[in-house]
């Protein structure tokens, strides 16, 4: 298949592009390198020494013997180039990772809220409008988030995108299936709710074939392909804005920084290993919806954990201290989370278990590159409202 | 109250601004005059001879003795000016009409789809972010649309924004109230769905006080205030892009053009007179939600009608011919529509009935200005997909 990976230089996009290339697909990466620019803006950088995109691609050619094309296009701003690409290259599928993807970054200030909404909505809508205008039959696979659901309903398992409901109408009861009611936890998560509405409309009006992957929090850094040569290494964010909870704990453990648990740590989250993510993307590509079908939604996660339990698990594995810090976010202190993920399991996904991969990750990535850590970037300082406090460990305050 | 009317030069914004000024409020109009620019772009103009905004405002000062301020700000693009206004002027309420509001215009081509999404989402989000950043307590009243609901569910009355549902969970049944599941009929309507999600988030995270008015199709042209001097006259769109169905029928009747019924005309729509719209805005202003309360949603409509029945009614009143034309839209041929609108009625709205006001409108507006009609602008030519046909009367094709 001819596949365009929008955002193919990013944390999920890069390993997905390599995995699809390794699987024999003809891959073009489209990226405006905005994630690297945000590193500059934040004065933070990947724990792992990622190489420039050109070097990555030539190293891939050298090691795997496979070509990947690259085009520097801002899909949110440069519609004409995107349309030209789709019209003339005729990809069979487009995988859309080209969005600002950090909740804390999206909440840092008005500028970031506005950038996240403007960038994400226009990126998604431009792709949809360009597919329609090109007249091409393209399967669009989008990276969404479990965060569109909010965090669980009274112990009920969250279904894959659609909810069966009953509505009373006088004496009668009407049965319907609806998009699961959303309850996003940040401006970033909200943009994925907006995306979902864009997809539903274009699937209905224009019969576009769309798959939306409601992904849990990624853990791990590398896949079979990104591990095959150091020049192919994937990015690993440990800073308070872009670092995901588990990866941040791993770095904190590696450098002797307290494991910062926000609030009570009672938040339950869904997780998936990065190797499973790339497999899921491939499975989604191989199982597209038909034209005229509604958006196909998969829950792309493999296990759920409560944050404080993860912290204690890593503390036990590594000897790191756990420290409770204020929660910079606006969220319930404690939540249950049960998730249905039957579709990927039925289609052959064999999950990497957290309990098996965790220690390896600590040693091979967090430990190996710990000299690159800037301690000042570790705490989460973006607050959800003026009343929230930054997640700085009391033991380190003023230091 | 100090009130900012965003989009206060437009079809709904102008009469609302005058009505609130006449009621003793201190009104500032914020508008970038984009609607006038679209007239130029489409080569269409208001049936009624609307005056430049400066002349409107000075005529209002002269006739009513009341000051209205005007600022030319593009709220979707110029965040800093908007923030500066809110921070330094401290409005008690902002009424947000500043969106591209025509479904056919939004579907005309990719450029218009993209403009509508970009403009409407960024306008709404900028207002929300600016209110938060200003730290001011502002009641935001937004003009939404009945179109977010889709067109009815199995004969059930559409509630005001929120739906009571039951969800089976094993042996148990969970009861919840959710935002009514949306089913927008155009890119324009979809932007109002996106708005709704933005509002829900900011009401939750930032405790903003927000009212969303789910408005039906406006009919009529003038209010008590816009009728008081010809220089205050409101716009009246009869073209295929911006003209609403009833106003277009009135002009068609006045100039002897067939009344163009799309498809079978079996579409049932909700309507409200423009005089009732301005009253509803005032009622909404006087009944704001509390901080921390969810978004307050009103159904702002007073009656429902099936399009073909409206055409026949106007045909009987005026002798005009009814002609069935292809439907340029992608929609169900026939739909029922039942709507709950108890809140405004309880709060004192006394609706203007279509059956009473229609003939007056034909004579006083459509008839009076019929020499200004450009026949070529009458048919609806924006099609929802490449497979839809323009709504040109067979009897006039090729002429």
Q: Topology, please?
A:
The structure is a homodimer of 399-residue chains.
Chain A: E1 2-6, H1 13-22, E2 26-30, H2 34-42, H3 53-64, E3 68-71, H4 79-89, E4 93-96, H5 103-107, H6 110-134, E5 139-145, E6 157-158, E7 162-169, E8 172-179, H7 187-206, E9 209-215, E10 217-219, H8 245-255, E11 259-262, E12 268-273, H9 274-286, E13 296-300, E14 303-306, H10 307-318, E15 322-325, E16 338-339, H11 342-346, H12 354-367
Parallel strand pairs in A: 1-2, 1-4, 2-3, 4-5, 5-9, 6-16, 9-13, 10-12, 11-15
Antiparallel strand pairs in A: 7-8, 12-14
Instruction: Please give the count of helices of chain A.
Output: 12
Radius of gyration of chain A: 21 Å
The oligomeric state is homodimer
Largest interface: A-B, 49 and 48 residues
Beta percentage of chain A is: 15-25%
The largest sheet of chain A is: 7 strands, parallel
Q: Fraction of residues of chain A in helices?
A: 25-40%
Distance separating the two termini of chain A: 54 Å
Broad structural category of chain A: alpha/beta
Q: Which segments of chain A are poorly predicted (pLDDT under 50) over 5 or more consecutive residues?
A: none
Strand segment count of chain A: 16
Shape, per Cα inertia axes of chain A: globular
Q: What is the element string of chain A, with H for helices and E for strands?
A: EHEHHEHEHHEEEEHEEHEEHEEHEEHH
Average pLDDT taken over every residue of chain A: 95
Major sheet: arrangement of strands of chain A: 3-2-1-4-5-9-13
């Amino acid at each position: 298949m001819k596949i365009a990976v929008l955002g193919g230089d990013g944390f999920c996009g890069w390993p997905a592009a390599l995995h699809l290339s390794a699987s024999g697909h003809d891959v073009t990466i489209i990226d405006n390198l905005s994630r690297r620019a945000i590193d500059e803006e934040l004065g933070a950088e990947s724990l792992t020494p990622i190489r420039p995109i050109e070097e990555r691609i030539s190293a891939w050619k050298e090691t795997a013997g496979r070509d990947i094309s690259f085009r520097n296009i801002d899909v949110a701003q440069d519609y004409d180039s995107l349309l030209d690409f789709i019209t003339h290259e005729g990809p069979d599928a487009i995988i859309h990772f080209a969005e600002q993807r950090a909740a804390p970054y999206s909440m840092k200030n008005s500028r970031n809220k506005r950038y996240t909404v403007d960038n994400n909505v226009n990126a998604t809508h431009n792709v949809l409008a360009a597919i329609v205008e090109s007249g091409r039959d393209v399967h669009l696979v989008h990276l969404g988030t479990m965060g569109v659901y909010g965090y669980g309903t009274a112990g009920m398992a969250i279904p894959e995108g659609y909810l069966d409901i009953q509505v009373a109408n006088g004496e009668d009861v009407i049965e319907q299936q609806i998009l699961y009611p959303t309850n996003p936890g940040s401006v970033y998560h909200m943009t994925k709710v907006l995306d979902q509405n864009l997809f539903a409309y274009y699937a209905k009006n224009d019969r576009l074939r769309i798959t939306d992957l409601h992904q849990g929090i990624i853990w791990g850094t590398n896949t079979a392909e990104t591990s095959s040569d150091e020049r192919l290494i994937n990015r690993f964010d440990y800073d308070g804005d872009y670092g995901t909870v588990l990866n941040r704990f791993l770095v904190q453990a590696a450098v002797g920084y307290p494991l910062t648990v926000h609030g009570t740590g009672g938040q339950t989250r869904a997780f998936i290993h990065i190797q499973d993510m790339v497999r899921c993307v491939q499975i989604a590509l191989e199982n597209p919806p038909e034209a005229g079908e509604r958006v196909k939604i998969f829950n792309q996660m493999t296990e759920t954990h409560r944050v404080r339990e993860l912290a204690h698990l890593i503390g036990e594995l590594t000897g790191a201290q756990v420290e409770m810090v204020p929660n910079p976010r606006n969220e319930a202190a404690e939540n249950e989370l049960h998730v249905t993920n039957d579709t990927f399991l039925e289609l052959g996904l064999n999950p990497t278990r957290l309990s098996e991969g965790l220690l390896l990750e600590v040693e091979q990535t967090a430990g190996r590159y710990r000299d690159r850590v800037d301690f000042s970037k570790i705490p989460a300082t973006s607050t959800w409202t003026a009343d929230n406090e930054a997640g700085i460990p009391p033991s380190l305050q003023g230091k």
